[in-house]
Amino acid sequence: AASLYTDEDPLVILSSGSLRSSVTNSSSAWLLQFFSSWCGHCIQYSSTWKVLAEDVKDWQAVIAVSVLDCAQEENHEICREFGIQLFPTIKFFHAHSPETDRGTPFRGANRQVQTVRQVMVDILQNHTKLDWPDRCPRLEPYSSEDLLPRLGQRSEDYTAIVVEEPDSYVGREVILDLLMFSGVQVKRALSSERPLVEALGVTSFPSLYLLHPNSTHTEPRVEKKQRFFFSSFLKTLPGVQRKAGGRSSAAGLQEAAPGRGASESWRRFDSAKVYTADLESGLHYLLRVELASHDYLEGEELSIFKDFVTLVAKLYPGGGSVVRLMEALSDWLLSLQGRRLVYQNVLDLVDNKMRVRQCVPGGGVRWVGCQGSRAGLRGYPCSLWTLFHILTVQHAAKPTALENTGGSREAAPVLQVMRRYIRTFFGCQECGRHFEQAAAAGLDQVQNPDQQILWLWEQHNRVNSRLSGTLSDDPLFPKAPWPGPALCATCHEEKNGARWNRDNVLVFLRRHYGASNLSHRHAISPPGPAQLRPAGQEQNQEQQPDSGPGPQSGQQEAAGPGGGLWVLGLGFSATDMSLCVLLYVCSCLVLMLLFFFFKVKSKRWRRRKSPLQV
Ligand SMILES: Cc1cc2nc3c(=O)[nH]c(=O)nc-3n(C[C@H](O)[C@H](O)[C@H](O)COP(=O)(O)OP(=O)(O)OC[C@H]3O[C@@H](n4cnc5c(N)ncnc54)[C@H](O)[C@@H]3O)c2cc1C
């Protein structure tokens, strides 16, 4: 499994173990992107970040470009500590920063290569004399008095002078580009330095002047008066060469993130079913990671959290540990007095510290229908779509379920909660913005539960077509209008310009996201009583082709962790039961053998004894 960034990229991949020791007390500054490998926008942005890293790889000794994947389990805690709530978040750290430094966020809306590169220059210049990066040359302009005496002087190296306007970054960028090269020193001067400008005969800005070791000076011919052409020209001057050990490579600074890219074995699944393992894993991530990045919730955030918990408690199908947890959370949230909720208290409850028995939806994540063909694809966002589709369908099936809750007054309560959750908490910033735009444009037209189901389906399909063919599109599960003909042939029609038969789509969605289509195979926690059905009941459905790179499964339903049968609600797996039966049969056989053995023996003994008695 490959991650978004690999060791081949000219940047530093940090992990929970290396982050603090790398960015604090460092001789260089750091520019760090906290990303999440499931976040579609992070996936799109990764190509820009790599181009940036390549562009400034020679600056690494003074400012290093790096990344950290907050989606990796072992990095959750450190991302929380550094206050990361949205992805991607870019932070920079000054050189020699103290251990308490949590980084300064980069707030600019424009994150294109040139803008970020110029921000890097600003970061370097914002250092004081005390914390100046050890190997960073002077970036301030030189005056005429500094430079004029050098004209006509012999020297060992070339001196390149970039004369430019005050707001130009070219001079500083060229200085940093040549950082790792010996044989040339680059300096900059401003166009306002009239004596220098006149002495050199500069007519346009920026211009490059070269003082040769033999005391002559010239304006070299470069194709364009731009950073790239200046730097490339200087690097090819005779005697100018990369400093020994100066090959810029991430390897020197790189500390491999533990577990990065470790691949799990593939779980076979049926794309015609919906898996509780995905829902539980999604809720695990949502409660323990996404929301846990907030130290506390208050005001609007707290009310959105309460609404979300109530919604899941009331509509999650079939009871079971998820519903028990959500009910416990909901009751507890309602009983809260204060206006501010310290999130650690939620974690305590979720981690069962408050002794709410049997209500924790397992630990860790286990994607099944939401598995991606490689790390960083699908997973959490897939489970979130799935959860909300299920909730819309459940709301239509149980229209009274939300009575006496805030949602009873709204025409589309599930979508309203989803809209507010995505806008406020969903880590992928861009996704939240797009979803909010769509909701603002059309959510008020949704008047009843059926329209609610269809609105979400349509919106999801719009996102699918927008993302089709982009980097976040998993090649094994390409984004396309859904459901395809193989899943629902009657959903498709070509009549009067329409592509879908919406009535049939509605019927299909109600079935697909209905409680009876939930599979507990690979489930993390035992299903609720209402979720359990006789083992053979769904066998036929399960025998549809499995998705993904594996042969058909054809496994039975009502499967517990590891695919076992949940018997008598006691959590015995099918293997446990088979072993019991086997042991039972073996002990019966042994007892019977012993019985016959002694019976024959006693008969013989009696026969032997009887003639003597006679
Ligand atoms: C609210 C929201 C907004 C998002 N916006 C963006 C964005 O702007 N940019 C971005 O890069 N990523 C966005 N994402 C993530 C993106 O939509 C996918 O979730 C992610 O790329 C994973 O894709 P996937 O292949 O698992 O399929 P997903 O799109 O996550 O779908 C999950 C499953 O739902 C089913 N499904 C597919 N289409 C439909 C449908 N129309 N109706 C019902 N069920 C369906 C399929 O079984 C599919 O496997 C968003 C996610 C969410 C939850």
TrEMBL record:
**GO cellular component assignments:** extracellular space; Golgi membrane
Q: Which GO terms describe its biological process?
A: protein folding
Q: Where are the transmembrane segments?
A: 581-600
Q: Where is this region: Disordered?
A: 523-559
Cofactor names from the entry are: FAD
Which superkingdom?
A: Eukaryota
A single GO molecular function term of this UniProt record: protein disulfide isomerase activity
Q: Specify the enzyme's EC class, one word.
A: oxidoreductase
**What CDD domains does the record tag this protein with?**
PDI_a_QSOX (cd02992)
Catalytic reactions of this protein: 2 R'C(R)SH + O2 = R'C(R)S-S(R)CR' + H2O2
| Keywords for this protein | Disulfide bond, FAD, Flavoprotein, Glycoprotein, Membrane, Oxidoreductase, Signal, Transmembrane, Transmembrane helix
Domain ERV/ALR sulfhydryl oxidase, first and last residues per copy = 373-482
Q: Where is the Thioredoxin domain?
A: 1-126
Reply yes or no: does the keyword Membrane apply.
yes
- List the EC numbers from the record: 1.8.3.2
Q: Which family does it belong to?
A: Belongs to the quiescin-sulfhydryl oxidase (QSOX) family.
Q: What exactly does this protein do?
A: Catalyzes the oxidation of sulfhydryl groups in peptide and protein thiols to disulfides with the reduction of oxygen to hydrogen peroxide.
Q: What is this protein called?
A: Sulfhydryl oxidase
